[in-house]
Write a structure and sequence with these properties.
Oligomer: heteropentamer
Largest sheet of chain B: 5 strands, mixed
Order of helices and strands of chain E: EHEHHEHHEHHEHHEHEHHHEHH
CATH architecture of the largest domain in chain E: 3-Layer(aba) Sandwich
Strand content of chain E: 5-15%
Order of helices and strands of chain B: HEEHEHEHEHHHHHH
Helix content of chain E: 40-55%
Number of strands of chain E: 8
Structural class of chain B: alpha/beta
Number of helices of chain B: 10
Radius of gyration of chain E: 20 Å
Shape of chain B: globular
Radius of gyration of chain B: 20 Å
Structural class of chain E: alpha/beta
Number of domains of chain B: 2
Strand order of the largest sheet of chain E: 2-1-3-4
Strand order of the largest sheet of chain B: 2-1-3-4-5
C-alpha cells in the first residue's frame, strides 16, 4: 500500500490530543537511553516479550554523557510528563568514563529541578545495563505509575 | 589606611604604571554627577589616573571589562578586589587571555555595599601583581554563604514553584545578568542561536524559567558568587539563588568548592571521582 | 533480643564486620595467649560469622585476651578482634557467665581500689590467693619482697578515697544512670 | 527541500499483528517533509530493499525512515543498501517499532499510537540529518612493541611472522624480562631459559624485527594507524656495530656493583651484559657506576678492547621519531617491596628471608650459586625451608587487595625444587587457599604434596630469629593450634605489582589504569587485549598478574589484533564524531578534560576579531582519528560550538519537539 | 627546664623501688621536671576495663582531669606501660567520641576535654635535644654489654591510639641503650606481650609468655633485658627461678618440689637480669648500685655490673 500525501487526518488525533488540543489522559514519558546499555536492554525486553506501559518514548543516544540537561528542560516545556536518563552502571561505560560525567551533571540538575519546584518523581536518572531487560521493564512501570499518579505536568509547560 | 589614603595610593600606582608603560590603560572607578554612583574609568595616562575614585559607591565589578580588549597585544591594568581577582582567574582558566596580559593591582576590600558584599568570603585578592595595601582579615560573613538558596530550599515544592514562577513572570529577558557575569565569556550566547533549538524566545513564563535554569547551569561550577547578575537585574530578581543552589550541591558532593581561587584547578563538571555519590540506582 | 541480634549489636559497638575476616589465621598465629585459649581470635571471628554467640561467651578467650593488639596490627583486613572480645566480655558478665579466677581477681582489685584508691599488692595477692584457692601462687617471691620492703602491710591510700569509691559506684552503675532521665546536654 | 520516504515493515506478523502498520503508514504520509510512505512484509529482504530503492528513484526521495526492528539489528543493512542509491547512507533513520513497541505491548490503539510517535520522531530527525562521509585514514604498516619480556617477544614474533615490520623496545640492555630469570616453569618443569632464549635469538635474527634495547618511549603523538613515537636511545658507550662481544672488558672492569639480575646475590661489572645469554650479546656501560663516566678516571675497558674505537665514552643519548600504525604495551610486573610493608617478617633485616624471584636465581643452574640452594647469610644448605604465600597479596591493609595468581603454582614448584635438590629437606608451605585453576596445575600441586611438602593452612603471623635460625610463627588453622617452625630459609611468595614506570608510559599513550595501577583493558570480557585508545593493545602482566601460559596466549591475541589492523591499507572511521564550529568556540577548554580519548586539544589560532586584525585566540580541535563519538564533550560546551555529528543538539531536540507537534 | 605532669602509677610506690630511684636520678640530671599529679589514683589496670568500660575510662580520667585543670600547660607522662595504655586510651576516646566524654565527665563530676597529650618515658627521652642532654650526663659507658630492649606491647599498641610507626622492631629504647655503651641485640620479642596483665588470675596460662621472652633474649646473646615498664620488669624477673626449675624438670621428665626455688637459687647462667632503661641510664650517669638499691632485684644484677665499663672513663668507676 502506498499513500499519497494529499489524503488527510487531523494531526492531533493520533498523539493523544483531542481535536481542541487539550490533554488526553495517558501521560507521556521521554527516556534518553544509551545505545550500549539501556537501549540494548530495552531491545532485550522486547526479545523476551516482556510487557510494560506503552507511554514511554525512547530517544537513542550514543552515551548518557551525550544527554544535555537542557534536553530535559526542553522535554518538560514541550509536554513531557516524565523524563528519564538511562546509562550504563558506573564503571561499565562503553566510552570508559562518559557516565561519570552524567552522574555529576544530573545530580546537580535533578536537585536544581527540584529546587525550581519540579516534582523529583518526574525526573529519573537510572543505571540499566544491556542485560537488565527486567530492570528496564520494572523501571518503566514504576516511573509510569508515579507519573500517572501525579497527573499531567503543567510546570515549565509551554502554553499552546 | 582610610579610603581616602587608599584612593590616593590607587591613583599614584596607576599613574606610575601608565608612565612606565607597563599597561596601556588602567581600569578603575571614576566619578559621576551623582555622589552615590560611580562610573568605570579607563585611564590612559597619569593625568587621567588622578581621576580614579575609591568609595562605597564602587559596586560594579571591573573584571568583565577586561574581555573588551582581550585580543589586544598590550597589557591592561586593573584594580582587583577579592571578587574581581577570582573573576580574572576564571578568565585565565577559560583561556580568554594569558596571565601576563593583565597587570593586577590588588586592593584588599572590606566590602563596599551591605547588600552586595553581605555574603562575601574573600576580601583579599587571590591573584595580583602588586598589593596596594595590607591584606585585611578575611571575614566571617554575617550572611551564610548559601542563605538565598537555603531560604528557597526550606519552602515546599508548591511554594518553590510559585516563587520561581513569580520571579520569572517578571523577567524581561534583557540578558543584563549575562552581560554582567564575569564568567559568561562565550563568543555567542546560546540564547542568541535559534537554530540549535535550546531556547525558545517567547516572552513566556515557561521560556523565562528555562532561560533562568539554563543560565544557572551554564555558570554552575564556574560561578564565583560575586552577585553581579543580581545587582544588574533591572527587575531586581533574586536569581543568585539558582547558582547558589548548584554550588551548595557541589560542596555537598565533593567538599568545599570555590571557583576562581586559582587559575589551575579544573572544573567540577570537567572531572569525576570513581566514588562520586549518586542515588540513581 | 535474639542471640543473633545481640551478636550484631556487639559487633556494631566494636565496629567489627564479620565478613571482613577471611579466616587466614594471622591473628591466632601471632596471639601470645593462643595456646591457652579454647577459642583463638580466628575462632572468635568464625563464631561471629556463623552466629554462635554462646561459644564466644562461654570461651575462656574473653577472659584471657591480654589486649596486646598484635592481632589487629597484623590483620590484613584490620579486624578489631580485641574490641569484639571486650564487648563479648561485658555481655558475658551481664549474663553472669564468669571465669572464676578472673571474677575473683577483678572484683578483689576493684574492692581494693574502693578501699585505698591505689593498688595494695599484699591485699590484692593475699585476698586473691585465698579466694581463688591458690595459697602458694608466687609464694616463693614473698620473702624476698618483704625483706627488701618492696611490699608491706602499710597501705598507700589516697586522700580522697571516699570520693573515689563513690566514683567507682557511679561508673559501675552507669548503664542504669545513663538510661535514667538526664538533663539535656549543652 | 526534504523528500522523505517512510517504509513500515510488517516483519512477517511480528509487527503487524500488534501495530496497525497501514495506519502508521497513513499517518506518516501526513508528516511534514514526507512525500512517500509505504508498508511491506519484510523490508530487510531482497525484494523489500529493492522496493525502497525503486521508490527512491521513482519519487526522487532524498531521506529515508524505516520503521522496523531495532537499529541495532539492521541499521548497517539499510546503510549498505543506500550505498546502491544516490542517497548518502547517513540520511537514514530507523524507528524501532518491533523490540520497543510490537513485542512489548498488547495489540491495539496504544501500540499503534506509539509506533506513529516513533516514526514522527524519526521523520523529524532525518529531516535534520546531514550527509556524512566516513574518512579513510592511512595506516602505517609498522608495529611498536614496548617491553621485551616473554609477552613482548611473543607478540613481536607473531606480528613479524605475519609479514609486518615490528620495533621491539626494551629499556634494559637485554630482552628476556622476568622469564629468563626463572629456573624452571610450572607445571612441566621445563627449563625456563631453554624455552625462552631460542625465542630471544629468533627476535634478533628476524628480518622484520628491529630490536631496540636500552631505549625508552619519550613522547607519543597521533592516533590509531598513525602514531609518531619519540624514542630515546640511551647511550650504550659500546659501538654495537663493531663490538665482537668477546667479554674482555667485562673481565677487566675494576668497578663492581650489585647485580640486579641476580637480585643482589652476586656482583657485576660497570660494563656488563645483563646475563650470559643476553640478546643482544654485547655489553653496555652503566653510566651511573662507571668510574670513567663518573669522574673521568679509569678507561680500562677502552684500553683492553681489541676493537679500535669500539668503546666511546663521549656517546650521547639520542632521541628520534618513528611512525607506527599500532602499539602493544607489554611492560610486565615487578614484585612488591615486601620489606617496606611487613615489619612482622623482619622488614628485610634477615638475609635468609627472601622473595620468590631471589629464590629463582638461587636455584638457577646459571645463577650465582650454579643451582646449589645455599642460604644467603652463610652459604649453608638449608634443611628446613618455609614458604609463605600471599605476602602482599590479598592484603588490603598492608599490600594489594588482589590475588597474584601465579604464586600458588610457583610455591609448589619451589617446594618441589627444594625437595628434589636437597636430600632430607623439609618444606612447609603456609597458605590461605591453594588456587590451581590451570591445565595440569592441580596435578602438579598434588604431586608436590606427595613429594613431601607440608601444607599448613594459615598466614604466617611473624618471623623472628632465635639466635640460631628463623622461627616462623603462625596458626595451623586446620589443627586450630599455634605452630612455630624453625627454618633455615624462608621464601616469601610476594605479590606482583605494575612495573616501574608503567604508569607514566601508559599515560603517554593516553590509556588508563585501574585502581591498582594495572593497565585497564577496554572491556574485561570482550575486549581483553585492547586499551581504550584505538590502536594501543596490551599483553601480559601489565594488565594484571599472570603466569607464562596466559601471558603468551594474551601476547598472541594482541598480535592477532595488530595483524588484523596492519593488514588494511586504510581504515574507515565512523563519521559520527564530534565536530567544532571554530567561529563559535571561545576556547574555554571545558570540553577538553572530559574526552576519554584525549581527542580534544586546545590550539592557538590567529583571526580577525573586531578591531583586532591579527588576534590570537584559543580554540578546541577534535582529532578525528581519536574521537569515538560518545558526545560527552558536547554537554560541556555552553554555546554548542562542539557538536556530535549524527546526534547534533538540533537533531535530538527536534525528536523531542516532534513528540508533541 | 622541661616540665611534665607526672602519673607515677601504683608500682612506683612498691615493687618498682629501684626504678623509681633511677627515674628521679635520671630526670634530675637531665633537667626534666616531673610534677606529680596530686592525689592520683590507680589507673584501673587490667581489671577496671575488664569489668566495665565506664570504669575503665573514668579511673584514669580522674587523674587526667586534675592535671588538665591544675597543670593546664603540661602534657602528662607516666613510666608504666599499663598506666600509659589506660591514660592514652582514655585521652583518645574522650577526643574521638562525644558520648564517651559525656559519660566520663558525668562519672568523675569534673570537666575533661583531653586537651593535652599523654606520653611514656620512651617518648620524652627520645627527642634529639633530650638525647643530647643525656649524652652530656653520661660519665661511663658499658663494655661488651649486650642488651635486649623489651618495649612491651602496651607502650606500642594499639597503633591508632599510640601512633607508633614501627610496632615490630621499634628503635627508641635501643638508641637510648646505645648511649650507655650497651649493644642492643636484634631479637624477636620486643613488643610481644609478657602476660603481666593476667599474672595473677591466669598464672598458669601466662607463664609461657614470659618464658618465651626470656629464652629468646638469652638465645640472641643478651646479657640483660631492658624494660620501660615496672609491670613487665617484675613479671619478667620474679619467676625466673621457677622457669629455670621447670626447664630442668622438662629435661629430666619429672617434677620437683616448688619450695626448692626459695632454698636453692638457680645457677646464674640460667637467669638473665632485667633492668629498666632508666636504671641503665642512671648507672651510666654515675649512680652507684647502692644508691639505686639494685639489691631489690629478684635476679641479681651483678652480671651487668661485672661487665665493667669502657676504658675512656676508667677512673670514674665507683660502684
Amino acid at each position: 500500500m502506498a499513500i499519497d500525501k494529499t489524503a488527510g487526518t487531523a494531526p492531533g488525533a493520533m498523539i493523544g490530543l483531542s481535536a481542541d488540543g487539550t490533554e488526553a489522559s495517558a501521560p507521556k514519558i521521554l527516556a534518553f537511553c544509551c545505545n550500549w546499555c539501556t537501549y540494548t536492554g530495552a531491545d532485550l525486553a522486547g526479545l523476551n516479550r516482556m510487557k510494560y506501559p506503552a507511554n514511554v518514548r525512547v530517544v537513542r543516544v550514543p552515551c548518557s554523557g551525550r544527554v544535555n540537561p537542557q534536553f530535559i528542560l526542553r522535554a518538560f516545556q514541550k509536554g513531557a510528563d516524565g523524563v528519564m536518563v538511562c546509562g550504563c552502571h558506573p564503571g561499565d561505560c562503553h566510552y570508559a568514563t562518559g557516565n561519570y560525567f552524567t552522574r555529576r551533571r544530573f545530580m546537580l540538575m535533578r536537585n536544581l529541578l527540584e529546587f525550581n519546584g519540579i516534582d523529583p518523581k518526574r525526573f529519573h536518572a537510572r543505571w540499566i545495563s544491556g542485560s537488565e531487560a527486567a530492570k528496564f521493564r520494572d523501571t518503566i512501570a514504576e516511573v509510569a505509575a508515579q507519573v500517572s499518579a501525579l497527573g499531567p505536568n503543567t510546570r515549565y509547560r509551554e502554553e499552546r | 589606611m582610610n579610603k581616602n589614603e587608599q584612593q590616593q595610593k590607587m591613583r599614584e600606582t596607576a599613574a606610575r604604571l601608565l608612565d612606565a608603560g607597563e599597561a596601556a590603560y588602567v581600569i578603575g572607578f571614576g566619578e559621576t554627577r551623582f555622589p552615590e554612583k560611580t562610573s568605570i574609568l579607563f585611564a590612559h595616562n597619569a593625568e587621567e589616573a588622578d581621576r580614579f575614585v575609591w568609595n562605597d559607591a564602587c559596586v560594579q565589578s571591573l573584571a568583565k571589562y577586561l574581555l573588551e580588549d582581550r585580543f589586544a597585544d598590550y597589557r591592561v591594568g586593573i584594580f582587583a578586589r577579592g571578587c574581581e581577582s577570582r573573576a580574572i582567574n576564571r578568565m585565565i582558566k577559560d583561556n580568554q587571555f594569558k596571565r601576563d596580559h593583565v597587570h593586577i593591582l590588588g586592593i584588599p576590600c572590606e566590602g563596599v555595599n551591605a547588600k552586595r558584599c553581605a555574603s562575601c568570603a574573600v576580601h583579599n585578592p587571590v591573584v595580583y601583581d602588586e598589593l596596594l595595601w595590607d591584606a585585611v582579615p578575611e571575614p566571617n560573613p554575617e550572611t551564610a554563604r548559601f542563605a538565598r538558596a537555603e531560604a528557597v530550599e526550606a519552602m515546599g515544592p508548591e511554594e518553590r514553584y510559585a516563587y520561581w514562577s513569580d520571579v520569572y513572570s517578571r523577567c524581561i529577558r534583557c540578558y543584563a545578568c549575562r552581560q554582567a557575569c564575569p564568567v559568561c565569556s562565550c563568543r555567542e550566547c546560546y540564547v542568541d542561536m535559534d537554530r540549535q533549538g535550546f531556547q525558545g524566545k517567547r516572552h513566556s513564563v515557561s521560556d523565562n524559567q528555562t532561560f533562568g535554569v539554563t543560565r544557572a547551569f551554564h555558570v554552575a561550577d564556574r560561578c564565583i558568587e560575586c552577585g553581579e547578575c543580581e545587582r544588574v537585574c533591572p527587575m531586581g530578581l533574586p536569581i543568585l539563588g539558582q547558582t547558589q543552589k548548584i554550588i551548595k550541591d557541589i560542596t555537598q558532593l565533593s567538599g568545599d568548592y570555590q571557583a576562581g581561587m586559582n587559575a589551575e584547578d579544573g572544573n567540577f563538571l570537567g572531572a569525576f571521582d570513581l566514588d562520586d555519590k549518586d542515588d540513581f540506582m | 533480643m535474639t542471640d543473633q541480634e545481640t551478636l550484631q549489636e556487639l559487633m556494631d559497638k566494636a565496629d567489627v564486620r564479620q565478613y571482613d575476616c577471611y579466616q587466614c589465621g594471622k591473628c591466632s598465629g601471632g596471639c601470645p595467649m593462643a595456646d591457652a585459649m579454647d577459642l583463638k581470635p580466628r575462632g572468635v571471628m568464625r563464631c561471629a560469622q556463623v552466629g554462635s554467640l554462646n561459644r564466644i561467651l562461654n570461651s575462656n578467650t574473653i577472659w584471657l585476651c591480654t589486649g596486646c593488639y598484635a592481632c589487629v596490627d597484623r590483620c590484613p583486613h584490620d579486624v578489631n578482634v580485641p574490641a569484639l572480645i571486650e564487648e563479648a566480655r561485658y555481655e558475658a558478665a551481664r549474663r553472669g557467665i564468669w571465669r572464676r579466677d578472673s571474677e575473683v581477681l577483678n572484683k578483689v582489685f576493684v574492692a581494693n581500689l574502693k578501699m585505698f584508691g591505689r593498688n595494695h599488692e599484699m591485699v590484692l595477692a593475699g585476698l586473691y590467693n585465698v579466694l581463688a584457692l591458690k595459697p602458694a601462687q608466687d609464694a616463693q617471691s614473698v620473702p624476698h619482697m618483704m625483706s627488701k620492703k618492696l611490699i608491706g602491710i602499710r597501705p598507700h591510700s589516697i586522700k580522697e578515697n571516699g570520693e573515689l569509691a563513690k566514683l567507682i559506684e557511679r561508673a559501675e552503675s552507669w548503664d542504669k544512670l545513663a538510661s535514667a532521665p538526664q538533663e539535656v546536654k549543652k | 527541500m526534504s523528500k522523505i520516504g517512510v517504509f513500515v515493515c510488517h516483519c512477517g506478523t511480528n509487527i503487524s499483528s500488534v501495530v496497525d502498520v497501514y495506519k502508521v503508514a497513513e499517518a506518516a504520509a501526513q508528516m511534514p517533509g514526507v512525500s512517500y510512505a509505504a508498508e511491506y512484509k519484510y523490508m530487510c529482504s531482497e525484494p523489500g530493499q529493492q522496493m525502497i530503492l525503486d521508490a527512491i528513484k521513482e519519487h526522487g526521495l532524498n531521506r529515508i525512515v524505516i520503521a522496523a526492528c531495532s537499529p541495532r539489528m539492521h541499521e548497517t543493512t539499510f546503510r549498505k543498501m543506500l550505498k546502491k542509491s544516490k542517497i548518502n547512507e547517513y540520511l537514514l533513520e530507523i524507528a524501532n517499532i518491533r523490540e520497543q513497541d510490537a513485542w512489548v505491548h498488547p495489540p491495539g490503539e496504544e501500540a499503534t499510537e506509539k509506533a506513529i510517535d516513533l516514526v514522527r520522531m524519526a521523520v523529524a530527525k532525518v529531516a535534520k540529518n546531514e550527509p556524512l562521509k566516513s574518512s579513510l585514514i592511512p595506516i602505517t604498516k609498522k608495529a611498536l612493541v614496548v617491553g621485551g619480556g616473554i609477552a613482548g617477544i611473543q607478540a613481536a614474533l607473531d606480528i613479524a611472522d605475519a609479514g609486518h615490520e615490528v620495533v621491539l623496545l626494551e629499556r634494559e640492555p637485554s630482552i628476556g624480562g622476568r622469564m629468563v630469570m626463572l629456573d624452571k616453569t610450572f607445571p612441566t618443569l621445563d627449563c625456563s631459559a631453554c624455552i625462552s632464549t631460542p625465542k630471544m635469538v629468533d627476535v634478533s635474527a628476524h628480518p622484520n624485527i628491529k630490536l631496540l634495547t636500552y631505549a625508552e618511549v619519550a613522547a607519543v603523538k597521533g592516533y590509531i594507524g598513525n602514531f609518531t613515537v619519540t624514542i630515546r636511545q640511551k647511550a650504550k658507550y659500546v659501538n654495537q656495530d663493531i663490538c665482537t662481544g668477546c667479554g674482555i672488558c667485562e673481565d677487566k672492569c675494576p668497578k663492581k656493583v650489585t647485580s640486579e639480575f641476580n637480585k643482589g646475590l652476586s656482583d657485576r661489572p660497570a660494563i656488563y651484559k645483563l646475563f650470559p645469554q643476553a640478546v643482544p650479546a654485547k655489553p653496555v656501560i652503566d653510566r651511573e657506576t662507571c668510574l670513567m663516566l663518573q669522574n673521568g678516571k679509569c678507561g680500562i675497558c677502552a684500553k683492553v678492547c681489541p676493537v679500535e674505537g669500539c668503546i666511546d665514552y663521549e656517546a650521547k643519548d639520542v632521541e628520534y621519531d618513528e611512525d607506527f600504525g599500532a602499539v602493544i604495551l607489554a611492560t610486565g610486573y615487578k614484585l612488591v617491596d615486601w620489606g617496606g610493608m611487613y615489619d612482622e617478617y623482619g622488614a628485610g633485616r634477615y638475609p635468609d628471608v627472601i622473595d620468590g624471584l631471589t629464590f629463582e636465581r638461587l636455584v638457577n643452574a646459571s645463577g650465582p650459586t650454579e643451582g646449589h640452594i645455599q642460604r644467603p647469610s652463610d652459604g649453608k644448605e638449608p634443611k628446613t625451608v618455609v614458604i609463605v604465600k600471599c605476602v602482599g597479596s590479598r592484603d588490603p591493609k598492608k599490600g594489594k587487595p588482589y590475588c597474584s595468581r601465579a604464586c600458588c603454582m610457583y610455591a609448589a614448584k619451589h617446594a618441589h625444587q627444594i625437595l628434589d635438590k636437597i636430600h632430607g629437606a623439609r618444606v612447609f608451605i603456609f597458605y590461605i587457599d591453594v588456587r590451581t585453576p590451570g591445565k595440569n596445575y592441580e596435578e602438579f600441586y598434588d604431586q608436590t604434596r606427595k613429594d613431601g611438602a607440608v601444607y599448613v593452612r594459615g598466614r604466617v603471623s611473624r618471623i623472628y630469629s632465635d639466635g640460631e635460625g628463623l622461627v616462623c610463627q603462625g596458626e595451623d588453622t586446620l589443627l586450630n593450634k599455634q605452630v612455630r617452625v624453625k627454618a633455615d630459609l624462608v621464601v616469601l611468595e610476594t605479590a606482583m605489582e605494575p612495573n616501574e614506570g608503567a604508569g607514566e608510559l601508559t599515560g603517554l599513550f593516553g590509556a588508563s589504569r585501574d585502581v591498582n595501577g594495572w593497565i585497564q583493558e577496554a572491556h574485561p570480557k570482550l575486549r581483553p587485549v585492547e586499551t581504550q585508545v584505538g590502536g594501543v593493545f596490551l599483553a601480559g602482566a601489565c594488565q594484571g598478574p599472570k603466569d607464562i601460559p596466559d601471558t603468551v596466549a594474551q601476547a598472541s591475541a594482541a598480535a592477532a589484533k595488530v595483524i588484523g589492523l596492519l593488514n588494511q591499507d586504510e581504515m574507515e572511521t565512523s563519521p559520527m564524531i564530534a565536530a567544532i564550529d571554530e567561529s563559535k568556540c571561545s576556547g574555554c577548554g571545558a570540553c577538553e578534560p572530559i574526552c576519554p580519548y584525549r581527542a580534544i586539544t586546545l590550539e592557538t589560532i590567529r583571526s580577525r576579531e573586531g578591531r583586532f586584525t591579527n588576534a590570537e585566540r584559543v580554540i578546541a580541535k577534535v582529532n578525528a582519528g581519536l574521537c569515538q563519538g560518545c558526545g560527552a564533550c558536547t554537554v560541556a560546551c555552553r554555546t554548542g560550538a562542539i557538536d556530535l555529528l549524527g546526534f547534533r543538539n538540533a537533531q535530538i531536540l527536534t525528536e523531542v519537539d516532534a513528540l508533541w507537534q | 627546664m622541661i616540665r611534665y605532669a607526672y602519673f607515677p602509677g601504683c608500682a612506683s610506690e612498691s615493687t618498682a623501688l629501684s626504678t623509681t630511684l633511677a627515674n628521679n636520678f635520671v630526670f634530675g640530671r637531665i633537667g626534666i621536671d616531673l610534677v606529680e599529679i596530686k592525689d592520683w589514683n590507680c589507673c584501673g589496670a587490667t581489671s577496671a576495663h575488664t569489668l566495665s568500660e565506664p570504669l575503665g575510662l573514668a579511673l584514669p580520667a580522674r587523674s587526667l582531669a586534675w592535671a588538665e585543670k591544675n597543670l593546664p600547660e603540661l602534657d602528662v607522662v607516666t613510666g608504666c606501660a599499663s598506666c600509659y595504655a589506660r591514660l592514652k586510651l582514655t585521652n583518645y576516646r574522650v577526643r574521638q567520641d562525644e558520648s564517651a566524654r559525656y559519660m566520663v565527665e558525668k562519672i568523675i563530676e569534673a570537666p575533661y576535654e583531653a586537651k593535652r597529650e599523654v606520653y611514656n618515658f620512651l617518648d620524652i627521652l627520645s627527642p634529639a635535644d633530650v638525647r643530647g642532654r643525656i649524652e652530656e650526663q653520661i660519665v661511663r659507658r658499658f663494655k661488651n654489654l649486650k642488651a635486649a630492649c623489651y618495649y612491651g606491647c602496651l607502650n606500642i599498641r594499639p597503633a591508632e591510639v599510640t601512633g607508633a610507626k614501627d610496632r615490630e622492631n621499634p628503635q627508641a629504647m635501643d638508641e637510648l641503650a646505645r648511649l650507655t655503651g650497651a649493644e642492643p641485640v636484634d631479637w624477636g620479642f620486643k613488643t610481644e606481650c609478657c602476660g603481666a596483665a593476667h599474672q595473677n588470675d591466669a598464672a598458669f596460662e601466662t607463664r609461657p609468655l614470659a618464658r618465651r621472652i626470656l629464652e629468646n633474649a638469652r638465645a640472641c646473646g643478651a646479657d640483660v633485658i631492658l624494660t620501660a615498664c615496672p609491670m613487665c620488669q617484675l613479671n619478667l624477673e620474679m619467676r625466673q627461678a621457677e622457669y629455670a626449675r621447670k626447664r630442668k624438670d622438662e629435661k629430666r621428665g619429672k617434677a620437683s618440689f616448688p619450695l626448692l626455688d626459695v632454698v636453692l637459687p638457680p645457677p646464674e647462667k640460667e637467669t638473665i637480669p632485667v633492668l629498666s632503661i632508666t636504671e641503665l641510664l642512671a648507672l651510666s650517669m654515675g649512680a652507684g648500685s647502692g644508691r639505686l638499691r639494685l639489691d631489690v632485684h629478684h635476679v641479681p644484677v651483678s652480671g651487668v655490673l661485672s661487665k665493667g665499663f669502657r676504658d675512656e672513663n676508667e677512673s670514674e668507676v665507683m660502684i
